[in-house]
């Protein structure tokens, strides 16, 4: 069993679900210097993303790969030279253990094996479609006046094919949809840039609002809406 990722395989439908920030796990030999309760907050993981990805993998009869370590250890959705790869502060909280961390060691132990495994999974799928699952906090401690009313965000970089299909369907399902919100996929899209856009693989990248995705009811709602939309996107694009 890998410390870097978790694989859920429920069938051979050619959809790969990817959730980079699915875990708040910090290995015992990694000292971040933070209070344990911070690991349950949004700075450590995408709350609810693992649960929604798991429901979707079962419902779609496909495979999911879930990141197995906290984004505070290393951000699997950042370029290897990105400033935010190993954060020393996040939403007002200091992460002192990262100040003297060996970046190359963490890349070799966590980041590179994770992305290599995604490559392997995609290589074994004929005409794949990728569904990327993240989540966002409805408010930031460092910017409490910022309003984030969207119930789901759709992120993309240059390839917006699936986004253009999905956004009206998400709206028809009753969700308040943010197009490139609460932030832009042109800035935060490394995993999809590398594995989807660079290889011409169609994908849908979504951000779930954490005050909804933190509950079993919200997780079921998101999965119920996203499953048929993912199927329709793949049917039209793959």
Q: Averaged pLDDT, please? A: 95
Backbone shape: globular
Content-based structural category: alpha/beta
In CATH, the homologous superfamily goes by the name Zn-dependent exopeptidases
- Unreliable spans are none
Strand content: 15-25%
CATH class: Alpha Beta
> Might you state the CATH topology name?
Aminopeptidase
Radius of gyration computed on alpha carbons: 17 Å
Q: How many β-strand runs?
A: 9
The description of the largest β-sheet is: 7 strands, mixed
State the share of residues found in helices, binned by percent.
Answer: 25-40%
* Biggest sheet strand line-up: 1-3-2-6-9-7-8
Q: Count structural domains.
A: 1
What string gives the helices and strands in order? EEHEEEHEEHEHEHH
The tally of helices reads 6
Instruction: State the CATH architecture.
Output: 3-Layer(aba) Sandwich
Distance between the termini: 31 Å
Could you characterize the architecture of this molecule?
The structure is a single chain. The protein has 238 residues and is an alpha/beta fold. The protein has one domain: Zn-dependent exopeptidases (Aminopeptidase, 3-Layer(aba) Sandwich), CATH 3.40.630.40. It is 32% helix and 17% strand. It contains 6 helices and 9 strands, in the order ββαβββαββαβαβαα. The protein has helices at residues 49-60, 103-123, 161-172, 190-195, 210-213, 216-237, and strands spanning 5-9, 15-19, 63-67, 89-90, 93-94, 129-136, 152-155, 177-179, 203-209. The strands form 2 sheets. Strands 1-3-2-6-9-7-8 form a 7-stranded mixed sheet, sandwiched between helices. Strand 7, helix 3 and strand 8 (177-179) form a beta-alpha-beta unit. The longest helix has 22 residues, at 216-237. The protein is globular. The model has no long low-confidence stretch (mean pLDDT 95). Keywords: Hydrolase. This is N-formylglutamate amidohydrolase. One of its GO terms (molecular function) is hydrolase activity.
